[in-house]
Every structure is written in structure tokens, then in C-alpha cells.
Specification:
By secondary structure, this protein is α/β, with parallel strands linked by helices. It contains 19 helices and 22 strands.
């Protein structure tokens, strides 16, 4: 599997017998029985979504939603073919936008599958829908749709099926706006209860819950040790912890890009090339926020090949944002909660699972403008990507995991919870600088949200919190250790061993 897709053989090249094999050997181990017993309405058998290469352009959550609705795990063929039919009839890439517009006009209405987002045009006192498949961001949308789905459509947008009508008589100040979305049916969760999710956690042991999360992001937990699973969960911390800064450098094909492209529609991947202030922060010409102002996670893929337009000012603004959560463009200041993730490749000794020893320091592969101590000190954790396994078919999930869009919505809700209070109540980090303490607290808080969402500061135990602090300290220490090579006079000799557990009646 590449880092960009999990699909395998096209359905056109397989027979019914091949597809039917997916129904053989349905998981019947204790964990999967427990998952079905407590979470059947929000999980899916992960292998069922990996049957068609032709659908790699769809977000994973869209395919999983369709599979959960139409495919019977015991007899998947008919459902998979029904999905083939739905997508072939109602989905069109943006290159065919003029053809789709023509069909809507000639037929009077048309059912389209695609992305939908809504914005308020204050000047016209009007809500407009942006439909990429039409190449049009001034599509009218019914009030009923806004009433039902305003929360998601006015923020992250959603994939779904929409019935679009054509009315050439509607105009504003002499301009016609003929396209009108009458009905919208989202292909993803739009409402859920975080409290209900949290209430399910006590039914699982810690190991079972971690394995469920690993299965949910598409991997088979049986194939990995506890350390590797924790590194996989560290990749998810930016999704649950606001303003979290992470770097992962490692070999190719370990799932970095795949995770950040497919875990949530609130993440955005900057794929090498040029990053501009307008794209990242604010476009003065269009007066629109960039991705850092709109998304929950921005992942800079292939960071070694990324070039920043207006480099000095761009890095300065990014550096300030990573510290304060604010950025300025012109005379305007904005606040955002977006997490920043830097990902890239580094030469690796795969047998020893360590970075190549020829590097002077482990930031050496970054662009020169990012090899700035003040910038790098704002990174909360350095994930050692050289420890991550290459993603091969035998590592794919074989059991049940959360529907991706459900999990993404849960992650968005967890962002609103403050688990740093748990860390502060249970751990004394005396002797560390404020920046090091903040980094460790944010990493630990994110892992607590993922593994122990049901815990309060009063109910945490030493066995739960201590390993997470150890892990979080290690990930922050790797940053400081490399900075000590770059600037020994400033970063050498930092003490990371002075923390202690101070929870009531709990001793380290």
C-alpha cells in the first residue's frame, strides 16, 4: 500500500468468487465480539472498503459510509456492485463540470454526489453553496438544508448526495443564479454524542481499546508491538489536541501521508511544492482565511521539498502561530486552533530501526529556512519514523474499527475537552522550562484523550499516567537533543528526569 491509498484490485478485474472470499473468516475473536456487542452501530469491518482502485479519489470516510449502508459482511458482492452503480451514475470529477451543468439544465434536476460547503455572503445577505463538481461557489441552497446541517456545512463542509434543480428566473441585481440544491443527504456522521462514546470505554481493557483505535485507522494490531501502537496513536494527537506541533521523519511508505489524508476531513495535506502566506494564513485579495485558519490539522508532506513563498515573513508568522495560536496579516490578527505536522523522509537503517548515522542532527533534512532553533523549539514532539514498519498488505486491518467519519467527529469533540488539567493534577514537572512542560503536557493530554477519555484527574492511576509521561518526555527530549547539537550553548544539559507523580494516594 502506498501512503496515499488503501484500495487494492479494481472490481472489474475480479470475479464474484474473489470478492466473496472477503466474507470468509470473519473475525470471531474476543475483541471483535466485544466491539460488535457494544459498538455495532458505529463500526465497520475494515477489509470491506478495500476492493476498488477506481475509488481512491474518495475520502475513506465516504467509502466506509457507503459500505456500512449497502454491504453485508457475510455476502458483500451485491452491495459492492450497488455502490459501483451509485458512484458511476452520480459522481463526476470537476473536469466534467460543464457536462453536469448541461444535464441539470436539460433535465430540470439532477442527483449529484460530491462535496458541499456553505458560506454567508454578508454583502448580499445570502447563503451560497460551493459545489466543486460544478466549479460554482454561488449555488443556492434550501433553508431546510441549512436548518439541518448548518454546523457542518458552514465549517468543514461535507460529502453527500444532493438534488440540484435549474431555475433560470432567479437573479440578483441582474445576475442569474440558476442552480438550487433542494435536498442534501450527507454521506458521513453530522451529529453524535461524545458522552455516549465515553460511556463505552469502560467495557474495554486498555490493550483492547488501543487495538480498536489501531484497527480504526486501517492497521492490524496483532502485527505490532505496544511501542509501535503508541507511535501510531501519537500520529493522532494533532487531531484531538488543539495547536499541537509534531514532526515525523522516517523512511518512505510507512503510512504518514495516508493517516493525515484519510483520518478526518478537517485535515489538509500540503504536498511539497510552494506554500504561500495566502494559502496558509489569509488571502488579502479574496479576504479569505487560509487552511491554518480553517482546518484542524495541516500536514506538510515531503517537507524537505517544500518551499515557502516570502520565506522570511512566512516562517516568522508560522513560528509565532506555533507558539501563540495567533497570526497577523496586515492590520488584522486571527486566532486559530490548527495543529501543525511536518512529515518527511530521512535515510534509515531499517535493520537497526534508527536514522542513518551520517546525519549531524535529525533536523538536517529540513529546508534551510526551517533549521532555525527558535522555530524547532516550538515542536512539541518528534516521532521517530524510522521505528515505524513499512505498510504491507499483511499489516492491513482484518477486524472491526470505528467508521472513519464517526471517529473524526469524536476527535473534533475531544478537542474541546481540556485534559492538560489531568496532567497538571497528577504530575509535578519541577525544574523544567515552561516550554518543555507545555510540550510534554500537550502530548500526554492528547494520549489521555485517545486512551482514557473516561478518566477524570481524580480517577487517574499511576499505571495509567506514568507510562504516558515517560513517552511524552521522550518525544520532547528528542527535539531538545537535536537542538543541543545545533546550539549546545543554549540547549545542552536540559534535565528531563525531575518529574514525579503527585496524584492523591499515588506514589511514583
Amino acid at each position: 500500500m502506498s501512503e496515499h491509498t488503501e484500495q487494492t484490485t479494481p472490481i472489474a478485474d475480479t470475479g464474484q468468487d474473489t470478492l466473496s472470499q472477503m466474507a470468509i473468516g470473519l473475525p470471531d475473536d474476543p475483541l471483535n465480539r466485544k466491539i460488535i456487542g457494544h459498538l455495532a452501530d458505529r463500526v465497520i469491518l475494515k477489509p470491506l472498503t478495500r476492493w476498488n482502485e477506481a475509488y481512491k479519489e474518495f475520502p475513506r470516510y465516504v467509502m466506509e459510509y457507503l459500505v456500512s449502508r449497502y454491504v453485508d459482511a457475510h455476502a458483500p458482492v451485491d452491495g459492492q456492485r450497488k455502490i459501483d452503480k451509485i458512484l458511476s451514475e452520480h459522481y463526476s470529477e470537476s473536469a466534467k463540470k460543464e457536462l453536469i451543468k448541461s444535464r441539470i439544465k436539460e433535465q430540470g434536476q439532477y442527483t449529484l454526489l460530491g462535496q458541499l460547503a456553505v458560506r454567508l455572503d454578508q454583502a448580499k445577505d445570502h447563503y451560497w453553496a460551493d459545489v466543486p463538481a460544478l466549479g460554482d461557489n454561488t449555488v443556492r441552497v434550501s433553508g431546510k438544508i441549512l436548518e439541518q446541517y448548518a454546523d457542518v456545512l458552514l465549517t468543514s463542509g461535507a460529502w453527500g448526495t444532493m438534488e440540484i434543480e435549474y431555475d433560470a428566473t432567479y437573479e440578483i441585481k441582474g445576475r442569474k443564479y440558476p442552480f438550487y440544491i433542494r435536498v442534501f443527504s450527507p454521506l458521513q456522521y453530522t451529529r453524535l454524542s461524545l458522552d455516549d462514546f465515553i460511556s463505552k470505554r469502560p467495557f474495554f481493557t486498555d490493550d483492547e481499546w488501543i487495538d480498536l483505535l489501531v484497527q480504526s485507522i486501517g492497521f492490524n494490531p496483532v502485527r505490532f508491538d505496544r511501542r509501535t501502537k503508541m507511535l501510531m496513536l501519537l500520529r493522532l494527537v494533532p487531531f484531538v489536541e488543539s495547536n499541537y506541533n509534531l514532526i515525523e521523519l522516517g523512511p518512505r511508505e510507512t503510512g504518514k501521508t495516508y493517516t493525515f489524508r484519510n483520518t478526518s476531513n478537517r485535515s489538509f495535506v500540503v504536498s511539497g511544492g510552494k506554500a504561500t502566506p495566502a494559502t496558509l494564513f489569509y488571502n488579502k485579495g479574496t479576504r479569505k482565511l487560509g487552511v491554518i485558519g480553517l482546518k484542524h490539522v495541516v500536514f506538510f508532506d515531503e517537507i524537505a521539498n517544500t518551499r515557502f513563498d516570502e520565506a522570511e515573513s512566512s516562517i516568522s508568522v508560522l513560528k509565532d502561530y506555533m507558539q501563540t495560536g495567533k497570526f497577523s496579516r496586515g492590520d488584522q490578527e486571527f486566532s486559530a486552533q490548527c495543529s501543525i505536522v511536518l512529515g518527511g523522509n530521512i535515510d534509515t537503517d531499517l535493520e537497526r530501526k534508527q536514522a542513518d548515522s551520517t546525519y549531524r542532527h535529525l533536523f538536517e533534512v529540513l529546508p534551510a529556512e526551517l533549521q532555525d532553533a527558535a522555530f524547532l523549539d516550538r515542536i512539541h514532539a518528534y516521532l521517530p519514523g524510522w521505528e515505524m514498519p513499512k505498510i504491507r498488505p499483511e499489516n492491513y486491518a482484518t477486524g472491526y474499527g470505528f467508521l472513519t467519519d464517526y471517529m473524526a467527529e469524536i476527535f473534533a469533540e475531544l478537542r474541546r475537552r481540556n485534559f492538560q488539567t489531568h496532567v497538571s493534577a497528577c504530575v509535578n514537572m519541577k525544574g523544567m522550562t515552561g516550554r518543555n512542560q507545555d510540550a510534554i503536557k500537550k502530548t500526554a493530554a492528547g494520549l489521555l484523550k485517545l486512551i482514557y477519555p473516561h478518566r477524570t484527574p481524580e480517577s487517574m492511576t499511576r499505571d495509567e499516567i506514568a507510562p504516558l509521561i515517560d513517552f511524552s518526555v521522550e518525544m520532547r527530549k528528542r527535539v531538545i537533543d537535536q537542538l543541543a547539537v545545533m546550539k549546545p550553548e543554549e540547549f545542552r544539559g536540559v534535565d528531563f528526569h525531575s518529574w514525579e507523580i503527585v496524584c492523591p494516594s499515588v506514589a511514583r
